[in-house]
Predict the structure.
Amino acid sequence: LLLFAIIQYGFIFSTYISLRNAAAVGARYAITGSPQPSTVDVQNFTRGVLGPSVQTNRVTAINVNRNVTAGAVSDATSVQVRYNMPLIVPFVVPGRTGNTLPLSATCISM
């Protein structure tokens, strides 16, 4: 049981790192793209960056918010990626919904 839990949490961690990376790359693209990319362009770009541990058909939302206030900066851009991760061994994961675990990662770029 412990071995299954270690393996499952390794998959969860790998998937979260992929989501976090995609959100960061998408936010950077949103602020550095020239001309400024549309929200749909940022969403498509972010979806394309997702790693191999993420099934893109299970991405539930990619939210892009412009003019977000982050500290003293009021023109930041936020990208959030939401994903329902399928679990291999669901009984070792608390907070799950059925056989999936909702994950999300957000990055704010200035």
About this structure: The two ends are 44 Å apart (CA to CA). The helical segments are 2-32, 39-49.
